[in-house]
UniProtKB/TrEMBL annotation:
Keyword Membrane recorded: yes
Transmembrane segments: 280-300, 321-346, 352-377, 389-415
First-listed, main subcellular location of the protein, grouped into a coarse class: membrane
Protein name: Protein ACCELERATED CELL DEATH 6-like
PROSITE patterns membership: ANK_REP_REGION (PS50297), ANK_REPEAT (PS50088)
Record PANTHER family: PROTEIN ACCELERATED CELL DEATH 6-LIKE, PROTEIN PHOSPHATASE 1 REGULATORY SUBUNIT
């Protein structure tokens, strides 16, 4: 009733600078927004307000076909204008992932894809930085040469996807034959996509890039650093988990550093190492205690007992292999954790280099001990329930899955020299821990 009485009221702004038309778009009231647009009678907001309304429409993705048609019809000039940051509506549609809007704008205003904002980012860069693969495909379909566009830092779309940790977009670009010229391109600072992914500590992206044989792992930027050098220089005295995984992904690909002989300065024995030593010592002690108890109180020693709880030895007659597995795994776990405990005690002498070496050795042994404990647990439970075939199979299958998961996580500690790019099977298996360890997918 209000805008029928006075259509221009739809463009009056409040103290926050919002008009009723803008608020309808922001609240996603599609029918109300459509009705306001259809009854403007020549009353239009200024260009800046049009831009804001278009942006909020794209952000809320309320541009249903009918509404988008009205916007393209009534505000055609707004689609080719830019706001105060130099961005046009196509940039915002690409940024928020509004595929239908991008497709329609490209059909009507193809030249908008070649308009950069104040920072030199083109609309396709916006889509790449957010990992919107469908929108990247639209740009390559309508404007194939847009893949060659660079921002003011001389970065292409693969640079942007790698720098922002967009793993799926990076994988798509590497699989696209038309984009192969981008894989080793350098920006104004000499950084390749691999350098930027390493700087951002995106282990999944680094793993995907190093998996591609076209990626040159030895390329150096203007500072004379390879990707591995960048990973080492970015690591603080207490690196985060993502930084460790990024470095590990490069080492698995057999990446080499150009600055290997750098002298490492000694740092004081900090509380970080003390806490780590105490934690590992606690784990080692617990494993020693549990395996020691099992070794001296093997269930089922009393063969004359008719109680079900004393039936492991009797079941072992039918399954000697699982019983032997149970005993051997337990003893390996006991001596591995005992050796790890001794190594951890050596790390408490105050020498940082000795502490680092001892901790690496202890972690490997603890990984072996935990794996053996898991095998012993699976074998022991399997012996207990061996008469129930269905339950025994379930225990065996779930145990094998658990053991495989533990082994996969600790494999880099056991086989550090074999995890190179030439071992494709190992590389594929060991790249799985990187999945989900990057905040941006």
């Amino acid at each position: 009733m209000l805008f029928y009485k006075d259509p221009k009221v739809t463009h009056d702004v409040n103290s926050e600078g919002k008009s009723p038309l803008y608020m309808a778009a922001e609240a996603r009231y599609m029918e109300l927004f459509k009705a306001m647009m259809e009854h403007q009678d020549g009353n239009n907001p200024d260009d800046l307000m049009k831009q804001k309304i278009l942006h909020v429409c794209f952000a809320g993705k309320i541009g249903a076909p009918g509404i988008l048609d009205i916007l393209l019809l009534k505000w055609k000039s707004a689609f080719t204008s830019v706001d105060e940051s130099g961005r046009n509506p196509l940039s915002y549609a690409a940024l928020v992932g509004y595929t239908e809007g991008v497709r329609r704008i490209l059909n009507e205003f193809r030249e908008s894809s070649y308009v950069a904002d104040e920072k030199g980012f083109f609309p396709i860069h916006m889509a790449s930085s957010k990992g919107h693969i469908d929108i990247i495909k639209e740009f390559l379909l309508h404007c194939p040469d847009s893949m060659e566009l660079n921002n003011k830092k001389n970065q292409n779309i693969l640079h942007q996807a790698s720098e922002n940790g967009r793993a799926k977009a990076v994988r798509y670009m590497l699989k696209n034959p038309r984009l192969q010229i981008l894989v080793n391109e350098r920006d104004c600072e000499g950084n390749t996509p691999l350098h930027l992914a390493t700087m951002g500590s995106h282990p999944r992206v680094v793993s995907i890039l190093t998996w591609d044989s076209r990626i040159d792992l030895q390329l150096m930027n203007k500072e004379g650093k390879t990707a591995l050098d960048v990973a080492l220089s970015c690591r603080a005295w207490m690196p985060s988990f993502r930084e460790r995984l990024t470095w590990q992904a490069l080492r698995h690909a057999d990446a080499q550093g150009a600055q290997r002989k750098q002298v490492q300065t000694q740092t004081p024995y900090t509380e970080f190492y003390k806490d780590r030593v105490n934690t590992l010592l606690l784990v080692a002690t617990l494993i020693v205690t549990v395996t020691f108890a099992v070794g001296f109180s093997v269930p089922g020693k009393d063969d004359d007992s008719s109680e079900p709880s004393h039936g492991i030895m009797r079941n072992a007659v039918y399954n000697k292999f699982m019983f032997h597995t149970y005993i051997i795994s337990n003893y390996i776990a006991f001596y591995s954790s005992s050796t790890a405990a001794v190594a951890i005690i050596w790390s408490q002498l105050g020498d940082l280099n000795l502490a680092i070496i001892s901790l690496k050795f202890a972690v490997t042994l603890l990984g072996l001990a935990l794996t053996m404990v898991s095998i012993a647990f699976m074998a022991g439970v399997h012996l207990v329930v061996s008469k129930n075939i269905g339950l025994a199979i379930f225990v065996l299958v779930m145990g094998l899955i658990g053991i495989l998961a533990i082994s996969m996580v600790f494999a880099p500690l056991f086989f550090p020299k074999f995890l190179t790019s030439s071992h494709y099977t190992l590389h594929f298996i060991l790249s799985l821990p990187f999945v989900g360890n990057s905040y941006k997918k």
